[in-house]
Amino acid sequence: MRSIAIMNQKGGVGKTTTAVNISAALAATGAKVCLIDMDPQAHATLHFGIEPQVEFDSVYDVLVKDMPLHKVRRQVAENLWIVPAHLDLSSAEMELAGDVAPQLLLREKLQADAESAECPNFDYVFIDCPPSLGILTVNALTAVDEVFIPMQPHFLALHGLSKLLQTIDVIARRLNPRLRLSGVVFCMYDGQTRLASEVAQDINAFFEKKDDSSDTLQNVRVFQTKIRKNVRLAEAPSFGRPIFEYDPGSNGAEDYRNLAGEIVCQGQKN
Ligand SMILES: Nc1ncnc2c1ncn2[C@@H]1O[C@H](COP(=O)(O)OP(=O)(O)OP(=O)(O)O)[C@@H](O)[C@H]1O
Ligand SMILES: [Mg+2]
Q1: Which of 194, 199, 244, 251 is closest to 222 using CA atoms?
Q2: Mutation probe of ligand 1 site: the residue of 16, 89, 128, 186 with most atoms within 8 A of C-beta
């Protein structure tokens, strides 16, 4: 099983869109996929048509009320499950502050889940992180083996990256020695602009140079598939389904299908 957190502390870079659509793309290939929504905004949950206004058990109950994962996990398509978030997750940070080791909660829950009879044998577990480096993101990074960073090719992209890499390094040293940054995905890519291709080149060069400086950066793949700007991707959440059901012929669907293909190949090589 591969476990992958989709993380970037910068907001609106394409984390949720990527988490939802690669989960759906991989499930469509026959892999069993679970997506855990760790963001109090509950956008991934909404993207699957689950309305957060209604009371339901969610990842909040798993972390704060000690509920097992399988009690809140829902199947949303063939081979695809989601552990939904609810707006009440925003208070988890404070509620967990008194816990002895709140960073480890999700890891423990995932381990217990993997050993339980109710757990489908997942090939992939993805975690959609919130745009912050608080306890929810730390829980995600402590529970997984890999991190994917979606980023927009802005000229400040490299700037935010060093803080992100530092965080991954600290978590790897203190809490989760297995953690590796394994993927960088360009989202909302506009191939027409010189800036986008220059930033993409800079990021490629940055990781080539960094390659042996840190254990967490040994196998970073800057994915060749770039997710183009595509309004259909922005529309799909209000429809409550992944892009493949909303508009399977769109550029967005094509890009996320190709990205899923690269992710499968990456798994076979490692
Ligand atoms: N390739 C794309 N083309 C056009 N719009 C996109 C694309 N990817 C994402 N969007 C839209 O951009 C907005 C931000 O994307 P998304 O919610 O995936 O980012 P995020 O990093 O999860 O944000 P947050 O940090 O708030 O969780 C959303 O409205 C989404 O529908
Ligand atoms: Mg999001």
Answers
A1: 199
A2: 16
Q: CA–CA separation, 63 vs 135, rounded Å?
A: 11
* CA 258 to ligand 2 centroid distance, Å: 21
Nearest CA to ligand 1 atom 7: 188
Please, which residues have CB within 8 angstroms of residue 158's CB and are 6 or more apart in sequence?
199, 202, 203, 206
Q: Which residues of 93-109 are buried (b: 16+ CB within 10 A; e: fewer)?
A: beebeeeeebbbbbbeb
Nearby residues of 67 by Cβ (< 8 Å), 6 or more positions away: 57, 61
Q: Is the CB of 187 under 6 A from ligand 1?
A: yes
Q: Where are the beta strands (DSSP E) in the chain?
A: 2-6, 33-37, 74-77, 80-83, 124-128, 146-151, 180-186, 221-222
Quick one: average pLDDT of 25-37? 98
Beta bridge partners of residue 185, listed in sequence order = 150
Which helix (H) or strand (E) is 98 found in, with range?
A: none
| Residue 43 beta carbon below 6 angstroms from any ligand 1 atom | yes
Going from the Cα of 57 to the center of ligand 2, the distance in angstroms, rounded, reads: 20
Q: Is the pTM of this model over 0.90?
A: yes
pLDDT digits over 172-185, tens only? Answer: 999 999 999 999 99
Radius of gyration of the chain (CA): 17
Phi-psi group of 38: left, alpha or beta (phi > 0 → left; psi -120 to 50 → alpha; rest → beta): alpha
Q: How far apart are CA 99 and CA 119, in angstroms?
A: 26
Distance CA 215, CA 219 (A): 9
CB 183 within 8 A of CB 173: no
